[in-house]
Specification:
The structure holds two protein chains of two kinds. Chain A contains two helices and one strand. Chain A is mostly helical. Chain B has 20 helices and three strands. Classes of the chains: A mainly alpha, B mainly alpha.
């Protein structure tokens, strides 16, 4: 049984990642971020964009699967 | 002396020599030839031209300048890494074909005219198809055939475009081409196939994952980058490329999320990274062009590293399907670590190569006022972290333990991965070394507090999204499947259409035969009626009947004289 096989350790990693995320949001208040296109200067822009982008990506990919997924031997039949 | 031989031909000669050597010398040759090329390129530097007179025109076999040299160095490094990684491969056609392929790709790189470019363009297509076929499976054979047809089509377009240009301008020189003429359009399409433009892209995720564990590594380096180089040479600042590249950066990531074959996931992410480079070329600014070249350089290394780690998994675990894998970090800890370095590089983590190259293209897009393009590229950046940065290492090495206990990758593979990983980190930590190789002067500082913080936010929250979706069971499970892509048009619709045409043709033939039969029967009956055994014309008449007939005729003649 290795360290990563224990669910409580995986949970700790997850929480640690969350803590880093919060830390980066706090840093956003302390560091002056130079905006590339203007609206990306708002608080936590990249964090929110990254989170939403990934959720949208996964949900869209699930939808895409309905249209394009076929059995593994599809082209061999 | 060696400086007088075109760099690509050194590798081509090594590829031809390889099968003739005793087996112990083959692998060392695979290392020595790329090293000789690297030394030669460093020695000659920019400004060398090698011209020959042939076909009534002057052909520029070699033209070195900053643009071709930047690609030349990384091609030599990639060929060297392949030599290390496939040290154990001493038989078969894969390694000689790989050397021929690398050599012809490099010769195409330094070609100063379109005819020389075309020759090596085609040679690299054939050699790379041989690399795919060397896998020896029926799937690889068919995929290699499809791949070759597409690559040769690219060569045909290039030849036709070059001929049109020659008729128009009287010159075959390969410099800025632009879209101003029909020849230019054909050449752009030829380059677009190699760059895997949307809808012209399918040869890439179709064929690359079918090659052997070592073959895919060498394939990932050259064909697409020749396309990027040629595009940067011939079509910088072509606005349409900005939008083509943006589409390329975005759409493959959806496929990458649902794909089960991890090397196919990497092929889709290769397509997505090419999109960034095409945008940089389309922008045509100093920063955009430099970014495209720098990102191509970095991509050859980190994508090679990722394909190497997946090749090691395929070799040791015997499968590369996410559904079969998981928990391999226990058996292959070093491969896991190297894979994570590649994943961090492609995801553009600070201190890794992607961070200092991809951002040049993004910043240039923002500076030029392409806000929507910039937003899509940012989406693609989060997406590439999601599928290449997290999904690849997660499903191969972590996730649920599939119970596979195998050996760590062979030592030479670990060395190759180690060198590639060191280069990825080296570029990330000392970007100035790479920037010095770029074709245009670089005025860009990647490491600002603002840029580091923005990128870390993007990545950490993307990772949080992944974990959140995973823990809540929203993340789509890996499933054994194929996903329809544009190749469906020729692999399914095309074959059905061909089958339908064949059936239709058969029916037509049957009808034709039936008609012929009927007409034939009629003719035969008529012949039989006249000439058959009872036919009027083949009846035998008795001599008496003839005598009476003649007598009657003569009497009629006599009577007619008297009466007249």
């Amino acid at each position: 049984m290795s360290w990563l096989d224990r669910p409580e350790n995986v949970r700790r990693l997850y929480q640690g990642l969350g803590a880093v995320g919060i830390g980066l949001l706090v840093a956003d208040l302390l560091v002056h971020r130079h905006a590339e296109v203007g609206f990306d200067g708002v608080f936590g822009y990249y964090g929110f964009y990254g989170f939403i982008a990934c959720v949208v990506l996964v949900l869209a990919a699930k939808l895409l699967r309905r249209g394009v997924m076929r059995p593994e031997d599809y082209y061999d039949r | 002396m060696i400086a007088e031989i075109p760099a690509g031909l050194i590798l081509v000669a090594a590829g031809l020599l390889w099968p003739l050597l005793p087996q112990v010398l083959r692998a060392p040759l695979g290392l020595a030839a790329p090293l000789a090329v690297l030394a030669q390129l460093a020695w000659i530097g920019p400004g060398w031209r090698l011209e020959v007179e042939a076909f009534g025109t002057v052909l520029v076999l070699v033209r070195t300048d900053a643009l071709s040299l930047a690609f030349g160095y990384v091609f030599a490094i990639a060929a060297f890494l392949n030599g290390v990684y496939s040290w154990h491969v001493r038989r078969g056609i894969e390694q000689p074909a790989a050397l021929l392929y690398a050599g012809s790709a490099m010769a195409a790189l330094f070609a100063g005219d379109l005819l020389t470019l075309f020759v090596f363009w085609e040679l690299s297509a054939i050699a790379s198809a041989a690399v795919i076929w060397a896998a020896g499976t029926p799937g690889a054979y068919r995929a290699g055939m499809r791949y070759l047809i597409v690559q040769l089509a690219s060569g045909m377009l290039l030849a036709a475009g070059a001929a049109l240009r020659y008729a128009e301008t009287g010159s075959l020189a390969f410099d800025l081409i632009g879209l101003g003429s029909p020849g230019g359009l054909l050449i752009l399409l030829a380059f677009g196939i190699k760059c895997a433009f949307p809808l012209l892209h399918n040869w890439l995720p179709d064929a690359y994952p079918e090659a052997s564990a070592t073959g895919t590594v060498v394939l990932s380096a050259f064909t697409t980058k020749i396309g990027i180089y040629a595009l940067a040479r011939g079509f910088p600042g072509t606005e349409a490329l900005i939008y083509v590249g943006t589409a390329m950066a975005a759409f493959p990531i959806f496929y990458a999320v649902i794909e089960n074959d991890l090397r196919r996931v990497l092929a889709y992410s290769l397509n997505n990274q090419l999109g960034f480079m095409v945008v940089g070329i389309g922008l045509g600014t100093d920063l955009g062009l430099n970014g495209a070249v720098a990102h191509a350089f970095a991509d050859i290394l980190f994508k090679g590293l990722l394909f190497m780690s997946m090749g090691a998994v395929l070799l040791r675990a015997g499968s590369i399907k996410a559904t079969d894998l998981g928990g391999l970090y226990k058996s292959m800890p070093l491969t896991t670590m190297f894979c994570i370095v590649g994943a961090a590089s492609i995801s553009a983590f600070p201190l890794f190569s992607g961070f200092v190259t991809k951002s040049m293209i993004m910043t240039s897009a923002a500076q030029e006022g392409h806000t929507v393009v910039w937003l899509v590229l940012l989406f693609a950046s989060a997406g590439v972290f999601h599928h290449a940065g997290i999904k690849i290492p997660f499903f191969a090495f972590f996730a649920h333990d599939a119970g596979i206990r195998c050996k760590e990758a062979p030592a030479h593979m670990l060395v190759a991965m180690g060198i590639a990983a060191a280069l990825c980190i080296g570029i990330g930590v000392f970007p100035a070394a790479l920037y010095a190789l770029l074709p245009l002067p670089v005025d860009y500082a990647p490491y600002t507090a603002s840029h580091v913080l923005a990128q870390l936010q993007l990545l950490v929250f993307s990772a949080l999204a992944f974990s959140w979706l995973m823990r809540n069971g929203i993340y789509p499970p890996e499933l054994r499947s194929v996903n329809l892509d544009a190749d469906w048009l020729y692999r399914h619709v095309g074959t059905r259409l061909a089958a339908a045409c064949a059936t239709g043709l058969e029916r037509l033939l049957a009808i034709w035969n039936a008609c012929l039969g009927r007409a034939g029967r009629g003719a035969a009956e008529a012949l039989d009626y006249l000439h058959g055994s009872r036919g009027a014309l083949s009846r035998t008449w008795p001599a008496r009947t003839m005598g009476i007939g003649v007598l009657g005729t003569l009497l009629a003649l006599l009577l007619s004289y008297y009466l007249a």
